[in-house]
C-alpha cells in the first residue's frame, strides 16, 4: 500500500526539523523504503510575516527537490506549511495551502491548551472557502482532558490529522489513549508522520498503518494513509462520516497533574 505524508519537517535550515541536507535526504530515503510515494513538506510558520517571507522556504524546498532528484529518490515532493494558530494569514501565499490545493491548510494549536478566545472564534479566522486540518489534536492538553472538545471543530467542518507515532505510544500513554479514542469515535480524517528526524520522529508510516489495519481494518487504514491525503492534494471533498458519542477518559493531562502535585506540596 502506498502512503502520502501530509505533515513533516523535512526542509533543512528553516525550523526544528531536518538539521542539514544529508539528514533531509536520509529522511526521504527512509520514506521511500517505507512505501511513502508523496510528501508534502510542512515547515512551521509562526505568523503571517513568516508567510510573507515564503521565498526563503521556497528556495530551500526547490533545492531539496533538486538534491532528491540527483540522489535518485522517487518520492514526489510538494510544498505546504504548518500554520501556528494566529488571527490572520494571507491564504493567497503559495505555502498557505497544502501542495497549493487552494482549499485545505494545516493548522496547529499551542501544545498545552486551546486559548478560549481562539476556540470561540476559530471559524471566523479564515475565509470560508478554506478548510482547516487540525494537526495532532491528540497531543493537545485540553483535548487530552476532554476529547469531546473536538466535536465543535469537526461538526463545523474542520478535519483532524493524527500523528502516526501517537498511535504507537511515541508521545506516552495519554496521547496514545486519546488518539485511539478519536479513532474509535470516527473523527480522524488523516494520519501523518510529523517527522522531524531519523529516529523517534522519522518519516515513516508503515508501522502505524499496520497497527490501524489490525485494530480498525484495512479500509479505514487505506482511507487515512492514502485516499484522504490524495483528496487533500487534489482539493477534493472528503466524506467524513458520522462521529460516534464520546466517553470522556478518567485521567488528567500530565501537565495539570504535575501542577496539582506542586499545589498539594505547597499546601502541606
Ligand atoms: Fe509539525
List the helices and strands and how they pair.
Blueprint: E1 3-5, H1 21-34, E2 36-41, E3 44-45, H2 48-52, H3 54-70, E4 76-79, E5 82-84, E6 104-108, H4 116-121, E7 131-135, H5 141-145, H6 150-155, E8 159-163, H7 164-167, H8 173-184, E9 190-192, H9 206-216, H10 218-234, H11 254-267
Parallel strand pairs: 1-2, 2-4, 3-5, 5-6, 6-7, 7-8, 8-9
Helix pairs in contact: 9-10
Bound molecules: fe (ii) ion.
Tell me about this structure.
The chain has helices at 21-34, 48-52, 54-70, 116-121, 141-145, 150-155, 164-167, 173-184, 206-216, 218-234, 254-267, and strands spanning 3-5, 36-41, 44-45, 76-79, 82-84, 104-108, 131-135, 159-163, 190-192. The termini are far apart. α9 (206-216) packs across α10. It has a single domain (3-267), classed as Alpha-Beta Barrel (TIM Barrel). By secondary structure, the protein is an alpha/beta fold. Strands 3-5-6-7-8-9 form a six-stranded parallel beta sheet. It contains eleven helices and nine strands. Helices cover 41% and strands 13% of the residues. α4 links the parallel β6 and β7.
Shape, per Cα inertia axes:
globular
Q: Tell me the number of helical segments per DSSP (H or I, 4 or more residues long).
A: 11
Ends distance: 57 Å
Roughly what fraction of the amino acids lie in strands?
5-15%
Secondary-structure element sequence? EHEEHHEEEHEHHEHHEHHH
CATH class, please? Alpha Beta
Average residue-wise pLDDT? 92
**Number of structurally distinct domains:** 1
Helix/strand-derived class? alpha/beta
Provide the spatial order of strands within the biggest beta sheet.
Answer: 3-5-6-7-8-9
Total beta strand runs? 9
Determine the CATH superfamily: Metal-dependent hydrolases
**Structural Rg:** 18 Å
What's the architecture, going by CATH? Alpha-Beta Barrel
Uncertain stretches of 5 or more adjacent residues: 256-268
CATH topology: TIM Barrel
Work out the helicity level: 40-55%
